[in-house]
Each structure stands twice: as C-alpha cells, then as structure tokens.
Input
Amino acid sequence: MNKLVINGGRRLSGSISVSGAKNAGLPVMAAAALCDDICIIDNLPYVKDIIIMGELLRCMGAEVSLSPNGRAVINPRGIKNVIPPEDLVAKMRASTYLMGILLGRFHEACVPPPGGCSIGARPIDQHLRGFEALGATVTEGEFLTLKAQKLVGNDVYLEASVGATINLILAATKAEGVTVIHGCAKEPHVVDVANFLNNMGASIRGAGTDTIRIRGVQHLRSASYTIIPDQIETGTWMIIAAATKGDIVIENCIPTHMEVVSDKLRKTGAEVIEGDDFLRVRCDGPLTATNIRTMVYPGFPTDLQQPMSAMLTVARGRSVITETIYEQRYRHLEEMRRMGAKVQVEDRLAFIDGVDKLYGRSVEATDLRAGAALIVAGLMAEGTTTISGVKYIDRGYERIEDKLTSVGADVRRI
Ligand code: EPU
Output
C-alpha cells in the first residue's frame, strides 16, 4: 500500500504543466465507442481512472492502446453488447457512461451499478429518467437493464447533473430525430465531449449553456481530438501555490475556467496573474479567511472545496464552507483536526477557525480530492505528514509526487 511522506513548511516555486482533464477524458473515451472507425485521443492524463476506462472498453471488444504520453487509439469496431465486468465498473463513477454508449449503439444495455468516491449518496435517477424519455425501459435489479425498440429524440429535463447531461448526449447522438436536454450541466468537460462528438459528425448545439439540442445521426466518422486541460488539477496547483506562500506558474491551463477560484484566492490575499494559457499564483503575506459555497459551473467547483478548505484552516479568521453538491465531503477536515485544524462540521456546513500552524501527522485519504486536500495540509504543516489511501489520489492526479518535487516540495512515495 503506497503512502506519501511530506516534510512540510517549504515555499513552493517554479512551473507546472497541467495534464489533460480526467473528467473530460473519461466520457470522450466512452464516446469513441459510438464511432464506426478508429479515434485518436490526445492529452489524456495517465491516471488510474483513464486506465480503467481503457480496460472496460477492451473487455467490451474494442481495441484500445493507451500510452503514458497521453494518447489513446481506440478501434471500436469489435464492440459487442456484453455486460461490462462488475469489478471494473465498481471502481469508478464514470462507468455510468457505458449505459449511454450501449444504449446508443445497441438500444440495449445491462450494466452493474457504478462505483466512485464515497462522498455521499450518488443516485443516477436523472440518467435513467432521461433514457426513459428517449424510449428505453429501465429495470433495476442486481444489474441495471435498459431496453428500447428504438431510441427516439425527445425533451429531457435534468437538474444540472454532469454525468446525466453527458450520458444523455451520448445516447441521443444515436437516437432518431431531435433531443432537447433542458437544465444541462455547463462544466467545461461537458463542452469537450460535445466538441469531440461533433468532430465525428454528430450534431450537438448549445453545450456550455442550459439547453443542448442534439440531432441524432446514424454514423460517426473517425476523429482525432485533444482533451482540454484539467480544471481541477489547475485549481489544486493554484491552491498549493497560495497555501505554501509560494510562487507557481501553472502552464497549459485555461484561465477562464478558473475565474471563480482566482477571485476567491485573491480574497484570501494571494496574487493571481492570468495569461492566455497560464496562471501565476503567488502569496507573500498571511492568508485571510473567506466563505465558500460550492455550485455547479461556473460556480465554485465541489472538487476544489476540499483542497481550498484545507488551505483555509490556516487563514486568519473564520471561514464558512457550504457544500451544496455532496453530503459527505468533509472527511479531510476530520483528519486535519489531528493536525491541529480547528473545524466544526454540521451537515453541509463547515466552520473553520484559522490556526497559526498545522502539525505533521499520519492521515488517511478517503477519496480523491480528500487526498489532494491532505497534500495541501501536509505541505503547510510543520514536520512530517504521512498520507495513506494514495490509491485515491492516483485515480485523478498524474505523477503527483514528481510534479510536487519539481516545484520544491520534499515528498516521497513509500
Ligand atoms: N445527482 C442525482 N441524480 C442523478 C445524478 C446526480 O441526484 O441522477 C446528484 C448527485 O448525487 C450529486 C449532484 O447531483 O449530489 C451532482 O452530481 P453529478 O451528476 O453532477 O456528478 P457526477 O457526474 O456523478 C462528476 C464528476 C465528479 C464531480 C461532479 C460535480 C466525473 C467522473 N465525476 O460526477 O468528480 O464532483 O461531476 O462536478 O466526471 C472528482 O473528480 O473527484 C469527482 C467526484
């Protein structure tokens, strides 16, 4: 079992290049399974979840070559309508996308229930309601079974779910006629998936707004596509720069995706300089408390709430965090209490009273972004922090210890 050992208290500086977006790469790989020909996808992060998606597609009959340089070549011609292996499906949330592609391709899907980080209940009722609107019958049992005589475009009403929006785009791309999805998620990765499908010949308009209109097509042609930079990795480095009183240039990112994070960091006293494709974050003085309320894009992303709230444990004053998306996304703060953080969690709220110092301790990451938060904590703390549960971090951060070392952190994997 891997652990990360961090000797904290260093000011990090230098430059970091952001990897491709995990949460765009996963559905883009799945979308390639709808194509009739070979697709080449570049800038995929070489992280565990992406590797699992490759394995899942392979188990379903696709030829997938995935290399550590971030390129996947996917030949979906051999895909069959098989039940994807339960052990792989249970490993991540993004396996929900198999429903959309199987339904789109075969009008039928039988899938085990998806897994994912344990951050509270994560129902998929919106996905299923959407599939039903396109003509599928859903039977819930040990496996989820979806069947449609044919998929027919319809009006679908969602509540800004990223996964449901993407899943409906996938299925509706191969449905007959026009589907209009109302109440769509507007996250950058939703737009990325739509762009990829459009490159293959799909007709998807409005991604990035509340309403997406999809005219179904019968065939999708071969395409090459480059995944957008990871918004959450970018934000994690921004927070790390501020938290360590550092000066980091974050290269290969999209600053406009980060506006709400930049604003919040400025409120805490950090300086954020925006370039065309880079951000520079530096901080000299003490950090000041601020309130965070997680919201769907373009609001403050829930995936950055954990690293940000970790940073705020040493900000002067009281910060109030409101987590509106997930029920249980404060476990990192419970761990950080043992490092000296003064935190009170009440349901969806966390009250953080800034302390002068955190102390290195052995802590456990219980989900991906909790892992990122504990890295922030370990970098700020006096002494040595040992983080277990690194498998969660490896699901979404590529070569994390190499990147940290390159900006001056004292970190090693044991
Ligand atoms: N929800 C429902 N019913 C549904 C779908 C969602 O009630 O049918 C609820 C969820 O329970 C949750 C909220 O709606 O409370 C948002 O869920 P959403 O569907 O937007 O999330 P997701 O698609 O399951 C993706 C990311 C998450 C990220 C969220 C929100 C992937 C693989 N996962 O999850 O990423 O937190 O969007 O932005 O794209 C992570 O990377 O650490 C991570 C958890």
Summary: The longest helix spans residues 231-243. The chain has a mean pLDDT of 96. The CA atoms of residues 244 and 274 lie 19 Å apart.
